Amino acid sequence: LLAGWRGPPARHPDAAALDLLQVCLAVGESSRLRRRMVLATEVAVSVSVSWGWRIDPGIFIAFVELAPGASPARAERMLFEEIAKVADRGVTAAEMARARALLRSSVLHELATHHGIAHALGQAEALLGDWREAGRALELYATITPADVRRVAREYLAPERRSIVTLDPLEPGRPGR
Q1: Which of 1, 22, 50, 54 is the most buried (most CB within 10 A)?
Q2: Does pLDDT of 161 surpass 70?
Q3: Minimal CA–CA distance to 87: which of 167, 136, 169, 17?
Q4: DSSP designation for 30
Q5: At 100, phi and psi to the nearest 5?
Q6: 96: closest CA among 144, 37, 157?
């Protein structure tokens, strides 16, 4: 199951809030989607969210690998219920702290090598128009509030903005459709 929403370009102020939303939803064992869909209900074997900064508007993608025999409709419903919860009620202070810590770790890990520094500088120049922006990511993440995360979930992940793809693989011996 794949669901996608059009997001803003990297230079838009909401790009960083979508980074935090991505982490809250699907990064790590304690993320919302993993807890509900993989651990609690076992409707999925994996859940991930992909959001990357682009020069042009990007795409926020949720990918759910269903457990054998799981209902795609049930998985889709759960995915959208969790997104709606964030859009309606936001995220907790603990989720924000966890997301900031994971993003901080990611940024610092990238900046730990010469290659990583060069990549960060090049990305900042290409995507944001100024290589100096590479050093401001941690400051930017610190300014994002739970209200910002709630707002971007409500605005960018609105039901009317999504596209959905469900892959139903053929079973061996089952005739094609």
Answers
A1: 22
A2: yes
A3: 17
A4: T
A5: -60, -40
A6: 144
pTM more than 0.85: yes
Amino acid residing at 11: R
- pLDDT band of 7, cuts 50, 70, 90: very high
Which residues have C-beta within 8 Å of that of residue 73, sequence separation ≥ 6?
Answer: none
Contact (Cβ atoms closer than 8 angstroms) between residue 120 and residue 67: no
Tokens of 35: 């807890």
Q: Would you say 71 and 113 are in contact if contact means Cβ atoms under 8 Å apart?
A: no
CB distance 156 to 60 below 8 Å: yes
* Alpha-carbon gap, residue 143 to 17, rounded angstroms: 9
pLDDT on residue 70: 93
